[in-house]
Amino acid sequence: MRHPTVSASDRTIVRDLAAQISKIAALPIQEEKRRLWRKLNSREAERPMVMTDQVFWTEMEIDG
Predict the structure, then answer these.
(1) CB neighbours of 40 closer than 8 A, spacing ≥ 6?
(2) Nearest 5 degrees, angle CA 54-CA 60-CA 64?
(3) 39 alpha-carbon distance from chain centroid
(4) CA 25, 27, 13, 57 torsion: positive or negative?
(5) pTM of the full predicted structure?
(6) Percent share of the chain, pLDDT over 70
(7) CB atoms near residue 40 (< 10 Å)
(8) Contact in structure between 45 and 39 (CB atoms under 8 Å)
(9) Distances (CA, A) of 27 to 19, 47, 62
(10) Which of 33, 30, 54, 53 is nearest to 45 (CA)?
């Protein structure tokens, strides 16, 4: 099975995006969110948590 060739440009874009995700994941607020989700999953919630798994494209401001 042949693997598709990834251009150097695409590889750079993906690496840059991965670096951004890594920085966001390392923020202190993310640890707080993980803690709150763990508490919710243990049925010891401190506050309501909301998870959205869909992007509401019709509600996004595209031209602004």
Answers:
(1) 49
(2) 155
(3) 20
(4) positive
(5) 0.58
(6) 98
(7) 14
(8) yes
(9) 13, 20, 27
(10) 33
